[in-house]
Design a protein that fits this description.
The protein is globular. A four-stranded antiparallel sheet has the order 2-3-1-4, with helices on one face. The chain has one domain: Alpha-Beta Plaits, CATH 3.30.70. It is of the alpha+beta class. The protein has helices at about 15-30, 60-75; strands spanning about 1-10, 35-40, 50-55, 80-85. Helix content is about 40%, strand content about 40%.
Length: about 90
């Protein structure tokens, strides 16, 4: 199992749209491509900080998603991000 965690900021005025797109489009896409679990939540002590956690069966499945992950962040209103893989 591989866990990927992203920490990122979404501007306050874009958060409602971001969460809607995540729920309706991004999560179903990830799950259709092999992501076993996909969760997003807002950090309690920040108005703009979010955390995303994705679980994959193995590293090969995760690596197949990297191109999709990058494209989605470029068009999602995300202003900054950090990413960590936890194999």
């Amino acid at each position: 199992m591989v866990k990927v965690i992203y920490e990122y900021d979404v501007a306050i005025e874009k958060q409602e749209e971001y969460l809607k797109v995540t729920r309706e489009k991004i999560k179903p896409l990830w799950e259709s491509k092999g992501c076993q679990s996909y969760d997003v939540w807002q950090v309690a002590d920040s108005e703009t900080r979010f955390i995303k956690e994705a679980l994959f069966e193995n590293e090969s499945v995760m690596k197949g998603m990297k191109g999709i992950l990058i494209k989605k962040h470029l068009h999602s209103g995300v202003t900054s991000k950090t990413h960590r893989d936890y194999p």
